[in-house]
Amino acid sequence: MNEKKWQLLPACGKEAENLDIILACDGASSVGQIGHEVAVKLTKEEDRARMCCITAIGAGSRAHTDIARKARRLIVINGCQMECASKIVRNAGIEPTYEITVAKEGVDKLSTLDFDDQEVERIAAKIVKDLNKKPVR
After folding, report:
1. Per-residue pLDDT tens for 57-71?
2. How far apart are alpha carbons 14 and 12 in whole angstroms?
3. DSSP readout, 67-97?
4. Whole-model pTM?
5. d(CA 24, CA 137)
6. pLDDT for 2-47, tens place per residue?
7. Distance (Å, rounded) from C-alpha 73 to C-alpha 112?
């Protein structure tokens, strides 16, 4: 891909207070991959949304944990009912503003990295709709 066409993202460390930070599952199943793709879609299409590295929070990165704490709103997208993304956030002492679990939204967890793009669109639209009802902290 030509770098000149790349979409540069806001620096989440410097701008977290003005951003909806998204932490998403990237699990090795259909629902984990949907969670990841939803985070990418929201980051690319929503002005104040920015996905951040949940793995760094799980590894104890102070910088990433601070970003999650400072977020305008903290959005956590879980793939399956194990809700690992939410557990990582809570283990870091942070309460999400909004959480969703893809597998609880009528999507079957399958042992595949493939997924239906329509499910990504549907879950992303639900998150945007739900967030429009939630106040910003």
Report:
1. 999 999 999 999 999
2. 5
3. HHHH-SEEEEEESSTT-HHHHHHHHTT---S
4. 0.93
5. 20
6. 667 888 887 888 889 999 999 999 999 999 999 999 999 999 999 8
7. 31
At the top level of CATH, the class of 17-124 is alpha beta
Side chain identity, residue 47? D
Phi, psi at residue 27, to the nearest 5°? Answer: -65, 160
- Give me the helix-helix angle, 30-45 and 117-133, nearest 10°: 60
Nearest Cα neighbor of 15 from 49, 56, 43 is 49
Tokens of 119: 């499910």
Domain definitions of the chain by residue range: 17-124
Measured CA to CA in angstroms, residue 13 lies from 5, 28, 61, 70, 123 at distances of 23, 28, 12, 9, 27
